[in-house]
């Protein structure tokens, strides 16, 4: 359910956010997906709600874990860059462009780390809606 061929650009934060936005499409459309796939009482016999809910849950979990992996990969890359720039700054404390670049990377790192918090909120909201609509038909293995 992630964007086809979407890879997170860790260098450019605005592109990083754009790809995450596309990757979060499944969460943004969860209510619609549930409304169109999980039958109401009057249509119960026409659709296998258990299978539908199970497939939707698996798609959600896969989307959540792939986004988390992508974000953590970018955090690791940016963190490594920050460390490298800190070492360079330690050797050349007067280099203003180096100091600017370090600050820029540190800011980007903080923004990426805050995306993990956003991710947690998005995931919780999606799972809450999923459980509300599918709890009768399907109980996911990990949800308490």
Automatic annotation (TrEMBL):
InterPro entries: MIX23
GO cellular component: mitochondrial intermembrane space
Family per record: Belongs to the MIX23 family.
Protein name in the entry: Protein MIX23
Source organism of the structure: Albula goreensis
